[in-house]
């Protein structure tokens, strides 16, 4: 299936909101304790602000348009350089998030979005793209691996033990 990959425009905001909500639904199924359905007005505001800002640090958002519909999007979120006190070598890094509607998956649209997003990221000075993926999302791991992404460290998490109310700080 052929899709036109282009920068998102203000007219695309309703479709972008639907893509974000569909992505939230998929992630809630994968991990309901870690994901939520965001407030639709907050999602709308986010995309409105992102598409109307001239700031170069705002996300780069591309859409895949098939006749009559936006079938997917790729969002490249540029990460600020690490502060001077950290040990990481400063380099322009970005996270990539790709969403394709169910009816358009496995038709090359996601691959086309990632390829175009890589090009856009490079044109904005990004030298490292990171795809943060929730571990149970094996289809996303397979997709990004197939697009040439490899492991980049390990992210471990833990919820801190709650202190009893009124317990003194040590």
Describe how the helices and strands are arranged.
Layout: E1 4-7, H1 13-30, H2 40-52, E2 60-66, E3 69-79, E4 93-100, H3 109-123, E5 128-130, H4 138-146
Parallel strand pairs: 4-5
Antiparallel strand pairs: 1-2, 2-3, 3-4
Structure report:
This protein has 170 residues and is α+β, with helices and mostly antiparallel strands. The protein has a single domain (4-146), classed as Gcn5-related N-acetyltransferase (GNAT) (Aminopeptidase, 3-Layer(aba) Sandwich), CATH 3.40.630. The chain has helices at residues 13-30, 40-52, 109-123, 138-146, and strands at 4-7, 60-66, 69-79, 93-100, 128-130. It has a five-stranded mixed beta sheet. β4, α3 and β5 form a beta-alpha-beta unit. α1 packs across α2 (40-52). The longest helix is centred in the N-terminal third of the chain and has 18 residues, at 13-30. The chain is globular.
| CATH structural class | Alpha Beta
What is the average per-residue confidence, as pLDDT, rounded to a whole number? 91
CATH-wise, what's the superfamily? Gcn5-related N-acetyltransferase (GNAT)
Estimate percent helicity: 25-40%
Reported for the largest beta sheet, the result is: 5 strands, mixed
What is the third-level CATH name, the topology?
A: Aminopeptidase
Spatial order of strands in the largest sheet: 1-2-3-4-5
């Amino acid at each position: 299936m052929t899709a036109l990959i282009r920068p998102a425009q203000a007219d695309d905001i309703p479709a972008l909101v639907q893509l974000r909500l569909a992505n939230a639904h998929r992630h809630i199924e994968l991990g309901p304790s870690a994901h939520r359905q965001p407030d639709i007005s907050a999602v709308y505001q986010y995309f409105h602000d992102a598409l109307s800002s001239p700031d170069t640090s705002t996300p780069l958002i591309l859409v895949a348009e098939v006749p009559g519909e936006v079938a997917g999007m790729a969002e490249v979120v540029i990460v600020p350089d690490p502060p001077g006190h950290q040990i990481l070598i400063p380099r322009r890094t970005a996270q990539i998030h790709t969403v394709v509607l169910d009816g358009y998956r496995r038709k090359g649209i996601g691959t086309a979005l990632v390829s175009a997003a890589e090009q856009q990221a490079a044109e904005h000075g990004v030298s490292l793209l990171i795809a943060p993926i929730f571990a149970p999302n094996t289809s996303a791991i397979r997709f990004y691996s197939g697009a040439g992404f490899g492991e980049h460290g390990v992210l471990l998490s833990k919820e801190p033990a709650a202190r009893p109310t009124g317990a003194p700080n040590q």
